[in-house]
Design the sequence.
């Protein structure tokens, strides 16, 4: 097969704007390593951002990805909804490779995360303080915005926080 | 933390019907192991089924998940779209742990797969025969339907094919 040029470009203002929209979604797909087998596994998670913009979630210990992320914090998130019309592969999606960090119940950072999460996910007040629910922060390592065929952009942590 | 009963039930007729609807979607999220690092990675893929019901996709060799699936065929798919209303975690989604198998251009099974794929993805005729596009079959190993909080079902390969 002939060598082709790198199809991934650095982010520009438009790419950052699309990424910002995707980061405002309330849910994401999470790829993680299964705790028992180490093999790829996938779940839907609630999605939000910390006050400093760091991607985060609130999860129940009953979810299989909790054991997975505790055993192997490296994971990947995907944000974006194809919608009903057109080719789903032309709709933008943001993929973030990240490292998960659980926030302990007594972590001094928790009250600010809790207030911020509640402001954006008001229905979570029903379970946010249950003993088996935890906040998890996702520190981005590498991000790729795919905005349609042959339109891919690499985003830095600064691009994501913008 | 107190032990709770297994929250996952065997599939019933309603669970199979929900799974069938989700399997008719044209796209999925794919969790795979990155070829270089082995760490979890994620992509959106086109989704369809072979004539015998086996989940499948059509992918370009340029996609990063191609090298990943070639190095490590174990992967996981998620089907389901949250839609715009309500809590995204109450909308059903189907998670399938699977093993990927690439179909060679000269595989005798390819023509039937190609016809079937084209019938359901007519726009793919623009690229279906490009040299860098391949069909990949996903043999299901284990499937879980999450139909909302506390409504999870385990599906067998027979349930999926129904």
Sequence:
């Amino acid at each position: 097969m002939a060598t082709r040029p790198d199809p991934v470009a650095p982010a520009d203002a438009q790419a950052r704007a699309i990424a910002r929209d995707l980061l405002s979604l309330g849910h994401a797909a999470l790829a993680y390593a299964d705790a028992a087998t180490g093999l790829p596994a996938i779940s839907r998670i609630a999605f939000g951002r910390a006050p400093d913009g760091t991607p985060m979630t609130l999860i129940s210990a009953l979810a299989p990805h909790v054991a997975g992320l505790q055993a192997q914090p490296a994971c990947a998130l995907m944000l974006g909804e194809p919608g009903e019309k057109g080719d789903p592969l032309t709709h933008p999606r943001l993929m973030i490779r990240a490292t998960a960090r659980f926030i302990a119940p007594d972590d001094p950072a928790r009250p600010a995360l809790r207030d911020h999460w509640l402001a954006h996910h008001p229905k979570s007040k029903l379970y946010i303080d249950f003993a088996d629910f935890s906040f998890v922060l996702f520190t981005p390592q590498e991000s790729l915005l795919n905005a349609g065929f042959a339109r891919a952009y690499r985003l830095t942590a600064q691009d994501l926080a913008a």
About this structure: Chain B touches chain A through 40 residues (CB under 8 Å).
